[in-house]
Design goal:
Blueprint (H helix, E strand, L loop, with lengths): L3 E9 L4 H12 L5 E8 L7 E9 L11 E6 L5 H4 L3 E10 L15 E5 L1 H8 L5 H13 L4 H14 L6 H16 L2
Parallel strand pairs: 1-4, 4-5, 5-6
Antiparallel strand pairs: 1-3, 2-3
Helix pairs in contact: 1-4, 3-4, 3-6, 4-6, 5-6
C-alpha cells in the first residue's frame, strides 16, 4: 500500500503555523518522493487566519488543494469552527486546548480528538513561541509520518546555522513534550 500523509495546520498568523508546515515538509522531502506545502494566509501581518496544507506521499500528488485531510491541527481555538469540516471521517483533530472553554470543542463524533494544552505548556517552558513545536510533536506522534529524530536534527541544523543554538534546548524540549502528550491521546 502506498503511504500518503495529509495534514492541514490552521491558526492565527504570527504563531508558527506556517513554520511548522515548512519544517515538516522540508524533513519529509528526504523520506518521500512527492511532497506538497501549500500555505494560505490573510493580508494582516499578525492575527489573521493562517493555514497550510502538507502532503507527503510515495505516489504523485494530483492537486495542491485538499477539501479534507487525514489530520487537522488547530493552533488556535478561534479557527476550529471554520476548519472542523476539513478533516475526513475517521481522521484526527489535534486541538490546542489551553484556552478551550466548556462550550467549545469538536462537535463531530466521527473523528478522534487529541487535546494538547500547548500554549500553557510553552508558557511553562518559558516561551510561548514554541507552542507550534509542541503541536508539531503531537502531530508527528499521532500520525507516525516521520521519525521524531529527523525533526530534531533539522531543528538543530537550522538553529545552529543561524547562530541561535541557545534556543535549541527549549525547542527540542517543546517538540518532545508534544510527542509525549500525544502518546496518551
Amino acid at each position: 500500500m502506498v503511504k500518503r500523509y495529509e495534514a492541514i495546520f490552521a491558526g492565527i498568523g504570527g504563531r508558527g503555523v506556517l513554520m511548522a508546515g515548512q519544517l515538516l515538509t522540508h524533513v519529509g522531502m528526504h523520506q518521500y518522493p512527492h511532497m506538497l506545502y501549500f500555505p494560505s494566509y490573510g493580508t494582516e501581518m499578525r492575527g489573521g487566519t493562517s493555514e497550510c496544507t502538507v502532503v507527503l506521499s510515495e505516489a504523485a500528488i494530483g492537486s495542491p488543494v485538499l477539501t479534507q485531510s487525514d489530520v487537522l491541527v488547530i493552533f488556535d481555538i478561534s479557527q476550529l469552527k471554520d476548519f472542523e469540516s476539513r478533516v475526513k471521517p475517521g481522521g484526527v483533530v489535534i486541538l490546542e486546548s489551553s484556552t478551550l472553554e466548556e462550550s467549545q470543542g469538536v462537535t463531530r463524533d466521527d473523528v478522534r480528538v487529541i487535546k494538547v494544552p500547548a500554549l500553557k505548556m510553552a508558557g511553562e517552558l518559558g516561551d510561548v513561541r514554541v507552542t507550534n513545536l509542541i503541536l508539531l510533536g503531537a502531530y508527528i506522534q499521532a500520525s507516525g509520518v516521520l521519525p521524531p529524530d529527523l525533526i530534531e536534527a533539522e531543528l538543530e541544523k537550522r538553529l545552529v546555522s543561524r547562530g541561535e543554538q541557545h534556543l535549541l534546548e527549549m525547542n527540542t524540549k517543546a517538540f518532545r513534550l508534544g510527542l509525549k502528550t500525544a502518546q496518551g491521546g
